[in-house]
């Protein structure tokens, strides 16, 4: 477990932040520009000498009682927006740079494992200027991992990439997420990245912690801003039942029922996360109105909330124990006579993320 309690005063900005980062999985730092996300990463890495407070990582006191470990004593991997590779070194040279500085008995990962994990084998002899933006970021992540960090900090690692490069690198990040047990703190402005990669979230506002917790519950909490964003999303953790190759459909199960989602191939993993946009959810009173939607599940309404658009209502539901958001019009709510506590049927288009 990583526990911190930081206080940092700058002209015009005060960071007053206490929280925990679970020892496994990806913790997303999310919040408006200037809320202190990068500053928190820098405090964790020991790059803010003025910060007061404490930090303990896996029982080690990295900062306590007015003393703090300097950056070079902290086993932290840092990946920036621009990969910042050494231009005069090949990919192999970049990967080995951090690795060589770690004492042999403290090395948790070997270069061969990292090359395999991130698909770097075809790139090993190239120089950074011979790589695409996405490839450079993969090498930067590999280099950070080879320092055998106790904590991997990623500051908007996809922000400088175009949509195509982002899509190219995301499956590699999924793979890291499933394979490694190094805690990752991941800063992003993109809710799609959070919904895809994160397990936990710290929501920041003006240097303070607005909320913290598991991703699924924070995304669907209507007292927080995420549920009211245009691209509000719920995630459903599912188990793979089978891949129907004839139709390229993946059959999945979870506590709320069974789902089918389009998929090009059978997944490598036995669990798959599903992302459902609130605007893609349709509510109906009976199971008869099936239409062409593949996913049609019983649900219960847990509440209604106003939405920024005056025509809309944000509806919270549960599918079994899984929370789901739906954005419908106020007119539909009235026409269907929807009430809190009512049993309904939901139809939606789902996107699967391995
Ligand atoms: N070196 C610095 N000196 C003084 N103030 C700074 C410095 N770096 C950042 N700040 C200020 O500290 C506050 C927090 O900045 P920070 O970069 O942590 O925010 P952020 O949430 O990461 O923003 P963004 O999402 O835009 O990257 C902002 O008000 C910023 O202007």
Write the layout of secondary structure elements.
Blueprint: E1 2-10, E2 13-21, E3 26-30, H1 37-45, E4 52-57, E5 60-64, E6 67-68, E7 76-79, H2 91-100, H3 111-117, H4 133-145, E8 151-155, H5 163-179, E9 184-187, H6 191-197, E10 200-205, E11 208-214, H7 215-219, E12 233-244, E13 249-254, E14 257-262, E15 271-277, E16 281-284, E17 295-306, E18 312-319, E19 322-329, H8 330-336, E20 343-348, E21 351-353
The chain binds adenosine-5'-triphosphate (ATP).
Adenosine-5'-triphosphate is lined by residues 10, 13, 31, 33-39.
GO cellular component, one term: membrane
Protein name: Molybdenum ABC transporter ATP-binding protein
Domain ABC transporter: 1-231
Could you describe the 3D structure shown?
- GO terms for molecular function: ABC-type transporter activity; ATP binding; ATP hydrolysis activity; molybdate ion transmembrane transporter activity.
- Keywords: ATP-binding, Cell inner membrane, Cell membrane, Membrane, Molybdenum, Nucleotide-binding, Translocase, Transport.
- This is Molybdenum ABC transporter ATP-binding protein.
- The chain is of the alpha+beta class and about 350 residues long.
- It folds into 2 domains: about 1-220, P-loop containing nucleotide triphosphate hydrolases (Rossmann fold, 3-Layer(aba) Sandwich); about 235-354, OB fold (Dihydrolipoamide Acetyltransferase, E2P).
- The protein has helices at about 35-45, 90-100, 110-115, 135-145, 165-180, 190-195, 215-220, 330-335, and strands at about 1-10, 15-20, 25-30, 50-55, 60-65, 65-70, 75-80, 150-155, 185, 200-205, 210-215, 235-245, 250-255, 255-260, 270-275, 280-285, 295-305, 310-320, 320-330, 345-350, 350-354.
- Strands 7-8-9-3-10-11 form a 6-stranded mixed β-sheet, sandwiched between helices.
- Helix 2 (about 90-100) packs parallel to helix 4 (about 135-145) and helix 4 (about 135-145) runs parallel beside helix 5 (about 165-180).
- The chain is globular and about 65 Å long.
- The mean pLDDT is about 90.
- Adenosine-5'-triphosphate (ATP) binds near residues 10, 13 and 33.
- Adenosine-5'-triphosphate binds near residues 31, 35, 36, 37 and 39.
